[in-house]
Design goal:
Blueprint (H helix, E strand, L loop, with lengths): L22 H14 L5 H13 L7 H7 L10 H19 L2 H17 L23 H11 L10 H20 L10 H26 L9 H17 L6 H17 L16 H16 L2
Length: 299
Amino acid sequence: MPDLVPFQKCIARPAEDGKSFPLSRHLYNVKLFMEKNIKSEPILGKLLGLAGLCHDVAKSHAYWQEYIKKKRQKGPNHAPEGAYLFSYLGYKLLKKEGKWEQYKIYWLWLTRDLADHHGTLKNIGQNYWIGSGQWQFMDLQGINDFVFSLYPGLGDIDISAESLEEWTDDVYDVFEAAEESIDLGYKSVEISELMRELQKWRDITTILIAGDRFDVRSVEPSRFDRDAHHENIRALERFCLGKQDQELSRVREESRRKILGQLAEKPLELVYTLEMPTGYGKTITALNMASWLGLSQGY
């Protein structure tokens, strides 16, 4: 059995250019990202933040730490353990806040998303995450200290192998009660209402994915400046010249220039409608319009 790695010394990924990536920092960053995207509901923000802390916590597993340090070829799947720990702490949080009934559907959604966050999204009823956890390979005291430093209100809750094993006996009933609350039975529900509920869930899924991914690799915004607009127009001209031998090329070119002339007459409209038959070059014309507007309007 490998030696336990103290939680504060666990890494999320290998160092790059002399920069280290502690696991605790990654979990904290995802927590902050998830919280700031749900500002309107403080309790939900707390719950999402807790999910952010839990999502990769099982990367502290001694074998996973060996894997990320290239000492073994494969690491254990950490997603189910993160879901299981969140189910335990999230339930305790909502009960302490007196908000379990109002937010148990979010507890279901988040538990499911954490279990799936490295794979295909599945139905809520697939609860294979229950009972997950090789806790003997993780520094649970370190995890305990880390979580409760950020959620002091949960400080009287025990994160130990024993308490997590005992949670297996309770979580089935908790899960079943939460799942029953979304069972429609024979009730008829408008499809638009179901769509709105699914949209809520997938908004949360997106926040989790974005928080996780953007902490690993930030996305720099890219913009077209005037030189880029000019180059785009030149590229479009070259493309059109290369198609001159095609039967419709003359008609396409006449249409494109006519439409760009119409655009120049009314360049300040907010919406333009482009109606052209199939094969007449709508895509090329639309791209031309975009670059023309970029140059003329400073977009």
